Amino acid sequence: MIPLLHYVLFSSALLLIGGYGVVRNRNAIVVLMSIEIMLTAANVNFVAFAEFWHDMAGQVFALFVIAIAAAEVAIGLAILLSLYKQRDTIELDMLDLLRW
Amino acid sequence: MAGVELLFPEFLLATTALLLPGTYLLHRNAQLCGRLAVATLAVALGATWLQWFGSGAAVPATYFGHLEINLFSQLFKFAFLAIALGSGIVSLAYLGDLPHRPEFFTLLLTATLGMLIVASATDLLTLFIGIELAAFSSYALVAFQKHDDGSTEAGAKYLLIGAFSSALTLYGISLLYGLTGTLEIAAIAANDWGASFSGVLFVAILFIIGGLGFKVAAVPFHAWAPDVYQGAPTPVTAFLAAGSKAMGFVALLRIFVTALGPALAEWQMLLAIIAVLTMTVGNLAALRQQDIGRMLAYSSVAQAGYILAAFPVMTELALGGAIFHILVHAVMKGGAFVIVAAVGMAGLGYTVESYRGLAQRSPLLALTLTVCLLALVGIPPFGGFFSKFWLFYGIFQAAMAGQQWLLWLVIAGVLNSALSLFYYLRVIRNIYTEDSQGEARPFGGHTRYIALAVLLLLTLLIPLQYDSILMLCREAAASLL
Predict the structure, then answer these.
(1) What is the pTM of this model?
(2) Does the structural domain A4-90 have CATH classification 1.10.10.10?
(3) What is the percent of chain B where pLDDT is above 70?
(4) Is residue B429 part of a domain?
């Protein structure tokens, strides 16, 4: 039996890695991937807490989050594709048309 | 199942959203699909109205502990459907003959469906799915004009920032679940937090504020709003400014006031600081905007600050005032963006200068925009005054009743309202005093009916009926506490 604390530390680490990726990366696809890591962090929490409380709701939530994450990537890639067709780049630094 | 007919608007929207692409494949008539979607929204709005004032609507109905239809949810369902109907009608004219219009209206319906789910959700899972359904649909709506640079860029920014914020909210929810062992809002509210300050709960609250703060564009999470409001197709901007923002507040009300109300001490000061920061930064940034969409976006940030000021107070009157102001804000801001859409459609442009001599071009649109802007400041005869007055009066009363420091929220709010007058007056001066250079231009389609409806709401219905609307809002607030 792995103690709850280990799961929480693992999910915090995932969240920090994801957050770092979002802040540091200039490529929109990598940012999208980092956001997926953050969603996974929440999923680890849900499953671990569901086991801890003996409550199925958390596991159900994790299943929904997986579906939501897939939908998010589908919409994200579609929008980034149309951005790429416009500008031939998905570097975030180039998103400067609208500013101040 | 008892009370299942109260979910008729949701079922209707879901069914039509699924049928619309098929209808287009069969008939190849995009205009028909648009009209069908608008008709669906109108029928759903009518059904909500009838259920509300008709038989047995006062009885709250619950569905497996995930959804509950009560006065609060009926009030907001009605508002969301009205907003979607308005922006749907404007879109019919605004989109012209762009390709992919059936998809646009399908997404409008699913976004509205998500908002309806948020309005009646009673557990965090349903709430989160509703928020995400509305958010995903609106990412695609913002990026809809895919051959327009601004629209695509706004869509990409909105997507990345929105996805990041929903990941934060989700992590906050998972921590909250870990602390309480339940996702049901009522069960979380029943949790005994004890008197001592809990660090883990505070972290969970920070994550949730970080995530939902993006939705309502609270400082310091507001940076996306001006970009998206400027770049998105204007009817979508109206939909986001009025609907998506109200949805964010519904989620905040459910989570903070209902679920975390007993843990008030943990978040009271935090939300008070965010509220004052939000109104001040929003108004200061709006002062120097040249693009009308950006100016209205910053004004929208400021309005979010006024509404957030009611959260730390947690009295029925202040929250009733806040709900009243959320609804009136949707009318004022939605109405202003409808006029912006009409002026843009006429080819006049989107800067403050575009409004020179609008009074000569179209007296009705000019008058409606003026009324909307004055109502946003909170000038007495118009609708915005009443909601803002009761919001601030509710805070003032709570301050007098004991918590003296809350007075600062009222002072900040009143000073900020005075400050906001400057940038609204700049537009109003352009409308009335300058000469319009060039010929008269036609203003698009049904926009003038929406403008007329907004005008009547702000000058007649809300001022004359403010006491009964306030009563409704207070009842809705009481059901949250």
Answers:
(1) 0.93
(2) no
(3) 96
(4) yes
